[in-house]
Amino acid sequence: MSMTVGVIGGGQLARMMIPAAVNLGIEISVLAEGDDSSARLGATAVGDYRDADTVRTFAKSVGVVTFDHEHVPPHVLAELLSDGAKVRPGPHALTFAQDKIAMRTRLAELGVPIPGWTTATTPAEVDAFVTEYGGKAVAKTARGGYDGKGVRMISSSADVVDWLEALADGEQLLLEERVSFTRELAQLIARRPSGQTALWPVVETVQKDGVCAEVIAPAPGSAGAVSDMAAKIAVSIAEGLDVTGVLAVELFETDDERILVNELAMRPHNSGHWTIDGSTTSQFEQHLRAVLDLPLGATDMTAKFAVMVNVLGGPTEGMTSRLPAAMGNHPHAKIHAYGKEFRAGRKVGHVTVAGDDLDAVVAEARGAAENFSN
Ligand SMILES: Nc1ncnc2c1ncn2[C@@H]1O[C@H](COP(=O)(O)OP(=O)(O)OP(=O)(O)O)[C@@H](O)[C@H]1O
Ligand SMILES: [Mg+2]
Predict the structure, then answer these.
(1) Which domain holds residue 265?
(2) Could you tell me if 46 and 165 lie in one domain?
(3) Is residue 108 part of a domain?
(4) Residue ranges of the ATP-grasp domain (predicted)?
């Protein structure tokens, strides 16, 4: 098999696969959305990922196809398979990261712990579910959500009339029990087509306004029961769904020490960015190894803790102008800028600090990220 990896989508995840590929001497091509995409430095093609001919032509130029995002339409993926392309993760797995209703249905079949849920198309169905769960619930669009878009906290059908009206034939809303979690966790796992798996320690993720803001690795106090449960869940999903590449399992931890699955991403994930600077093998290198069916790297941490803080929005003039101050004040911070233009709340970069004193690591990471806020 050709060692060229083709990545569909030119966001920061594709961008961060590039140095990993360069170090290993693996060719990488990116089908990017535009000349200004984050991964433009590795982009060999610019085109629309929804257009079957564009994607098929791109796939023919590489050995294995993988993804920066989960938005490639199913009919395009099916055409790639019929062309004989190696698509990893395969469409049969990816569908459960593309559609939250399909995901809930499949996880229920696998017996994985998940919040109470149903589907709805009418106000009466929404109100019945909300009443059943004590007057509050969460509504989600089945497809296309990211960074909290497509997720609403609701207390009646009045909160989703627009979504209900916009449903196309056959579409449904996902309704979930509003979990009163004590914290959110994420478990990352990589799996090769031949079956080998590797897991990083379970991490704590902190979201602000529905967007990931900080990640602490490992999740404090997770050694033992929590990490065992998270690992078991991730392995059963990776194997049960036949996922290849990196799989991120977003989790809720409850005060009665249960772990419930929120959602899945089948690609490197924001909760794993710390691995670049805090693990023997980064999630980006591991994803390349996994989709090429190469032996997976060790996932030990290089320090006791690693903390990642996202740069959201960033300075209007871009991150570069703030580098001198950030670097001068925070020599331990590893700064990652995605080359993206300012937009309020947008993920434009992140900072990671690794070390043995958690309080000091948190302070250094937050301090460094603060330099890039407006
Ligand atoms: N059932 C739930 N109960 C309580 N809070 C929830 C529930 N579902 C989602 N949330 C909150 O909303 C956030 C975003 O939800 P979810 O992860 O489903 O959305 P997304 O936009 O697809 O995610 P991402 O930001 O990972 O792209 C979660 O991280 C969590 O904080
Ligand atoms: Mg999420």
Answers:
(1) 181-370
(2) no
(3) no
(4) 104-292
Domain count across the chain:
3
Give, for ligand 1, the residue of 151, 271, 312 to mutate: max count of ligand atoms closer than 8 Å to Cβ: 151
Cβ–ligand 1 distance for 43 under 6 Å, the answer no
Q: Quick one: 173 and 185 in the same domain?
A: no
Q: CATH number, domain at 168? A: 3.30.1490.20
Specify whether 77 is located in the same domain as 173.
Answer: no
Give the model's pLDDT for residue 87: 98
Which of 99, 149, 174, 262 to mutate to test ligand 1, by most ligand atoms within 8 A of the CB atom?
262
Q: Is 213 in the pocket of ligand 1 (CB under 6 A)?
A: no
Residue list, CB under 5 A from ion ligand 2: 250, 263
CATH code for the domain of 361: 3.30.470.20
Q: What is the pTM of this model?
A: 0.96
Q: Which residue has the tokens 């929804």?
A: 50
Alpha carbon 359 to its chain centroid, in Å, reads 26
Centre of ligand 2 to C-alpha 24, Å, is: 31
Answer yes or no: is the C-beta of 146 below 6 A from any ligand 1 atom.
yes
Are residues 187 and 333 located together in one domain of the fold?
yes
Identify whether 34 is part of a domain.
yes
- pLDDT, tens digit, 9 for 90 and up, residues 54-92: 999 999 999 999 999 999 999 999 999 999 999 999 999
In a domain, 46, yes or no: yes
Give the angle subtended at the CA of 217 by the CAs of 212 and 221, to the nearest 5°. 110
83 C-alpha vs ligand 2 centroid, how far in Å?
A: 32
Confirm whether 106 is domain-assigned.
no
Query: Which of 138, 183, 269 has the most ligand 1 atoms within 8 A of CB, as the residue to mutate?
Result: 138
pLDDT tens-digit map of 264-311: 999 999 999 999 999 999 999 999 999 999 999 999 999 999 999 999
